[in-house]
Design goal:
The complex is a heterodimer of chains A (163) and B (876).
Chain A (H helix, E strand, L loop, with lengths): L1 E4 L5 H11 L13 H11 L5 E5 L2 E10 L11 E8 L8 H17 L3 E7 L3 H10 L3 E6 L9 E7 L4
Parallel strand pairs in A: 4-5
Antiparallel strand pairs in A: 1-2, 2-3, 3-4, 5-7, 6-7
Chain B lengths: L13 H15 L3 H14 L4 H13 L3 H14 L4 H13 L3 H14 L4 H13 L3 H14 L4 H13 L3 H14 L8 H16 L3 H13 L6 H14 L4 H12 L4 H10 L8 H14 L5 H9 L2 H18 L4 H5 L6 H18 L14 H17 L3 H14 L4 H13 L3 H14 L4 H13 L3 H8 L10 H7 L3 H13 L3 H20 L4 H7 L3 H12 L5 H19 L14 H27 L23 H4 L4 H9 L2 H4 L4 H13 L3 H14 L4 H15 L9 H12 L6 H11 L4 H13 L4 H9 L10 H13 L5 H11 L9 H16 L16 H8 L4
Helix pairs in contact in B: 1-2, 2-3, 3-4, 3-5, 4-5, 5-6, 6-7, 7-8, 8-9, 9-10, 10-11, 11-12, 12-13, 13-14, 14-15, 16-17, 17-18, 18-20, 18-21, 20-21, 21-22, 21-23, 22-23, 23-24, 24-25, 24-46, 25-26, 28-29, 28-32, 29-32, 32-35, 32-37, 35-37, 37-38, 37-39, 38-39, 38-40, 39-41, 39-42, 41-42, ...
The chains are: A alpha+beta (163), B mainly alpha (876).
Chain lengths: 163, 876
């Protein structure tokens, strides 16, 4: 297992991992289709806050993150997790947590992010429990009909600490 | 677009002139309807005004009226050949058609009439980058900087252009000059930080390591470079290159920063002068320290397993396996399997897992057990052992263990996926599909299992049924699940379905899918275009250079290689036997199969009709909608019949293989495919070169043996000798591979003797005999020797042997199948067509009835850490 920053050559592997794991990419608001355009755009804009996990060259998990561009005047910048995914066959290794921590650390040091936000489907209990119980995120809000099929999303956030 | 010319036919009176300006600005803001009106207003009075004609044409293309628009653009150009606008418009259109070279020519023409037009120059720079014309790029970027030195990105862009053109020294100069122009850069300016990191990188590539380190350190101290991880990584690397005493510490800091990064350990060890192969003992001691320091990190423990041997290995492997089994880590076997190349390690893993299994077995008395008797540990040890024996081709044993495990816990999908894989390996594609569907049914919301089950259905030839499963997770408004997956660039899907069609003899549909793979890579290549501008505006130069490099090696991706090989083999077959292209290719089909085919066809048609309907039902597009300039992809060959009946199969094959001549030189299968196409295209040097290279990789490779003889035989039966200079070189190259004195028959029988227990080699020898014109019966007799007990034969090779017999129209195919069916007791691969039809029904009737729709939408697509948390406390 190897956890490192995402690079251009990881792109097809990340896309494959995304397609194998995430249901219905198109429901994610700011997702360009196909995935790799979103990724290229993230990469070219915030190159240092997305990470991957690989096993002998195969991408088995990734976190794709961005900085929120539309922040109100005087409000500190914050990060956002666009997509996080670990292959079913690589669970229980703590990969999601490790990816999340790496990304958060980069958001905080490079962009001085005050917090990181993400959305999760209301029905996705496993993900909710990971974000809340393991990673310390809090539910801030419910976004009505966030997904294209009409499902609500929890808007979650985690305050980042600075040294 | 300024500097209006005064050529007579370009003249417009004030009213029209201001209308034209309005037209330009309407176009800029994509107010297409209004723009069209304005253009028509001008053209009413001046119907031959070239620039207006072009602008109107451009607007029309944006509105989706492409042909009409392009017609006007062409007319406009003829009316005013000396206008930069008409050439600019033409360039834009060509770029939309992905004709980058032609577009660049038009832009160059436009620049002749408006030398300092920034818009033109910027587009030219993007085209030059796309075409990798780096010398021209330097000139363009230089011009842009000269015109606008106050724009920061123009400096960076010039440095990057020099860098790409290979002139690092100039890149450095530009960066130094650029930094002099900067005043009052605020702290935490991410763009500036990226720039400085780029400067350090240029210095590093120039091998000016001290200077690079000095710049890095001072920038880090000033907080001008804010990327802490990058600072640490570059610092460690530079210190190592400088052989500094500080290097060791720098690598240690990195490992502390991220103990799960393999590269850091590698960097640390190599900095200590330790080669993993030569000094395993010392390296192991270091890794042990790291393991103690970071007890939760996997990398040092796993790396130690690669380095250790003997008793030391045993001592490390035991706790590694036990802890993973206790935690129930499903990837344990996949994780350690690469160590199986060492037979001693393989045996160790077997012993360890067997012993844990014994100790945790419910039958064992608790008192005698030294390890925990957790029932889950027992279960995961069974899972590991099943994978282990399955991997070693001991299928019956693996299945037996899985039965035990399933009796213990019938709800763990992994047990069914392992069962499915085992059956697949044993050649029971139908049972495998059923088992995978059983896994899926345990968790209908899991896309991973859904994808697997679809894949296994395709392997069993159930393509429509696979599609139905995939459709549970694809867009509901897509014409078909496959269409959505193709749009999402699912390489896995395209390859699996292509292969499934190929196996079923539907070569047209197979080619269609392989062509779709090719198009995914074409898209990857095209879509970098925008980033030539965007990345520089964002100053994300470091990742941008990485993207360019990746794009240059794009087609070395395994999926591209697979598609290229599969397609080129079909094209070669079509060339050799044009009858293959005439449509109905599969000879003996049963009624059931015919029926199924008809049904599939009907379903396909229904799908298409539905797609057409939904397209027609889409709201009429308003004329103001911008459809862009890119030519939309139009599929005018939905069933691949055009691909199949191409008059130039070899040219299509070559188009796919050509990029691999530089990108996959170490792939013997690629080299053989290149030979097959080149010899038929009469590119004899290319053919000889491919053979020579392949031989250097593996001289005994069975498929290569066939080609070596084929080449020699090919020359000997030519009606006239190959003309010089190619002929003599070809013959000389061949002579080095196989000296001319040797008779080909003797050479072939020697090969056979040397590899008498390899089924692959026997098949190759039979194919070679066929090339040399041996009678059918002799070839058949040779093929049937693969059934002997002393010959190593697996299902995969047996399938190849069966295809070969079919290809040479042997009457003994059924006889072979009967023998193979008796030999591979678990396999369904060699059943009769009637039996197969029944099997297919069996797979579906037993599963599709209970097939559950996905319930809810949000699948649990991240690992369940809560579960891990529960178990972690008990481990180690």
């Amino acid at each position: 297992m190897n956890i490192r920053r995402a690079r251009a050559e990881d792109l097809p592997g990340m896309q494959a991992c995304n397609l194998r794991n995430l249901p219905e990419n198109y429901t994610m608001k700011y997702f360009m289709s196909p995935f790799y355009l979103t990724y290229l755009y993230h990469c070219a804009t915030w190159p240092s806050i997305s990470y991957i996990a690989e096993d002998k060259g195969r991408i088995v998990g990734y976190i794709l993150a961005k900085m929120e561009e539309e922040t109100a005047e005087g409000e500190p910048p914050h990060g956002h997790v666009t997509s996080i995914s670990v292959l079913r066959s690589y669970r229980r290794l703590g990969i999601a947590k490790k990816l999340m921590l790496r990304s958060q650390e980069s958001m905080a040091t490079i962009y001085r992010a005050s917090h990181v936000s993400l959305h999760v489907r209301k029905s996705n209990r496993a993900a909710l429990s990971l974000y809340r119980d393991t990673l310390g995120f809090e539910v801030r809000d419910i976004e009505q009909k966030y997904y294209a099929d009409g499902e609500d999303a929890y808007a979650m956030r985690l305050t980042l600490e600075h040294d | 677009m300024s500097k209006r010319g005064t050529t007579p036919n370009r003249f417009l009176p004030p009213k029209e002139s201001s209308l034209f300006k309005e037209l330009l600005s309407l176009y800029e803001t994509k107010q297409l309807k209004k723009g069209l009106k304005t253009a028509d207003q001008i053209l009413k009075k001046y119907p031959e005004h070239g620039e207006t004609l072009c602008m109107k044409g451009l607007v029309l293309v944006h509105m989706g009226r492409r042909e009409e628009g392009i017609e006007l653009v062409r007319k406009g150009i003829r009316m005013d050949l000396a206008s930069h606008i008409v050439w600019h418009v033409f360039g834009l259109i060509q770029k939309g058609e992905k004709k980058y070279e032609e577009a660049l020519k038009s832009y160059t023409q436009a620049l002749r009439f408006d030398k300092e037009n920034m818009n033109l120059l910027r587009d030219v720079a993007q085209l030059q980058t796309q075409l990798r014309l780096y010398d021209g790029l330097v000139e363009t970027r230089y011009m842009l900087l000269r015109l606008r030195p106050t724009a920061r990105q123009n400096w960076v862009a010039l440095a990057v252009a020099y860098h790409l053109s290979g002139n690092l020294a100039e890149a450095k100069k530009v960066l130094v000059e650029y930094e002099k122009t900067l005043k009052n850069v605020p702290h935490y300016d991410v763009e500036h930080s990226e720039m400085l990191l780029y400067h350090v990188r240029v210095l590093e590539e120039l091998e000016q390591h001290s200077e690079a380190l000095a710049l890095l350190d001072v920038s880090a101290k000033d907080r001008a470079i804010v990327d802490k991880t990058a600072i640490m990584e570059v610092r460690a690397r530079l210190l190592s290159k400088l052989r500094s005493d500080e290097a060791e510490h720098a690598w240690k800091v990195l490992i502390e920063h991220n103990p799960e990064c393999y590269d850091y350990y590698k960097g640390y060890l190599s900095n200590q002068g330790l080669n993993i192969d030569e000094n395993p003992a010392e390296a192991l001691a270091i890794l042990r320290e790291f393991s103690t320091q970071f007890p939760k990190a996997n990398v040092p423990r796993r790396l130690s397993l690669s380095l250790a041997s003997g008793e030391e290995f045993q001592a490390l492997a035991e706790p590694y396996v036990l802890s993973a089994l206790k935690k129930g880590i499903p990837s344990l076997f996949v994780d350690v399997k690469s160590l199986y190349t060492d037979p001693a390690k393989l045996k160790s893993f077997e012993d360890i897992a067997e012993s844990i299994h014994k100790d945790t077995s419910p039958d064992t008395s608790v008192a005698s057990s030294s390890v925990s008797t957790e029932p889950t540990t027992y279960l995961w040890s069974l899972y590991f052992l099943a994978q282990h024996y399955s991997y070693l081709s001991q299928y019956a044993k693996a299945l037996e263990i899985l039965d035990l495990a399933l009796a213990h816990t019938p709800t763990l999908p992994e047990l069914y996926t392992c069962r499915a894989r085992t059956l697949k390996r044993a050649g029971d594609f139908h049972g495998a599909s059923r088992a995978m569907e059983d896994a899926r049914l345990l968790d209908g919301q899991d896309r991973f299992l859904n994808t697997k089950s679809a894949k296994y259905r395709m392997r069993a030839g159930l393509i429509d049924e696979a599609s139905a499963l995939l459709g549970l997770f694809t867009k509901k408004d897509a014409p078909s699940p496959g269409a959505d997956l193709e749009e999402m660039q699912s390489l896995f899907y395209l390859l699996e379905e292509g292969d499934a069609h190929r196996r079923a003899g539907r070569l047209n549909l197979a080619l269609k899918k392989y062509a779709a793979v090719q198009r995914v890579f074409d898209d990857y290549e095209d879509d970098q275009y925008d980033f030539h501008g965007y990345s520089l505006r964002k100053f994300t130069v470091n990742i941008y250079l990485n993207v360019l490099d990746w794009e240059d090696h794009l087609r070395s991706h395994p999926s591209y290689i697979k598609a290229a090989l599969a397609a080129s083999r079909i094209y070669v077959d079509i060339f050799d036997d044009p009858k293959l292209a005439s449509g109905n290719v599969d000879g003996d089909v049963t009624d059931a199969e015919k029926k199924a085919k008809k049904k599939a066809k009907k379903a396909q048609k229904e799908k298409e009709d539905a797609a057409k309907k939904s397209a027609a039902a889409a709201p009429a597009t308003s004329t103001n909608e911008d459809k862009g300039l890119d030519v939309p992809y139009k599929d005018d060959d939905p069933d691949g019949m055009k691909l199949l009946s191409t008059p130039e199969p070899l040219e299509l094959a070559w188009k796919m293989l050509q990029p691999l001549t530089t990108l996959a030189q170490d792939n013997i299968e690629v080299l053989i495919a290149i030979y097959d196409v080149a010899i038929r295209r009469r590119k004899y040097l290319q053919a000889a070169q491919a053979l020579a290279r392949a031989r250097a990789l593996d001289s005994e490779y069975p498929d290569l043996h066939v080609r070596i003889v084929h080449a020699r035989h090919f020359v000997s039966v030519l009606p006239e000798p190959m003309p010089a200079p190619v002929g003599p070189i070809f013959i000389e190259t061949l002579g080095k591979i196989l000296s001319e004195g040797v008779s080909l028959e003797t050479y072939n029988s020697q090969f056979l003797q040397n590899h008498s227990t390899s089924a692959q080699a026997i098949l190759a020898a039979a194919q070679t005999s066929r090339v040399l014109g041996a009678p059918l019966q002799e070839v058949e007799d040779l093929i049937f020797t693969t059934l002997r007990d002393e010959v190593r034969l697996d299902v995969k090779t047996a399938l190849e042997i069966s295809s070969f017999l079919k290809k040479i129209k042997s009457p003994r195919v059924n006889e072979l199948h009967q023998a193979l069916d008796a030999k591979f007791t678990l396999s369904t691969a060699f059943k009769t067509p009637d039996e197969l039809a029944k099997l297919r029904e069996w797979v579906l009737t037993t599963t599709s009835n209970s097939s559950s729709e996905r319930t809810g939408n949000g699948a649990a697509n991240v690992e369940n850490e809560a579960e891990l948390g529960k178990e972690a406390g008990k481990s180690v």
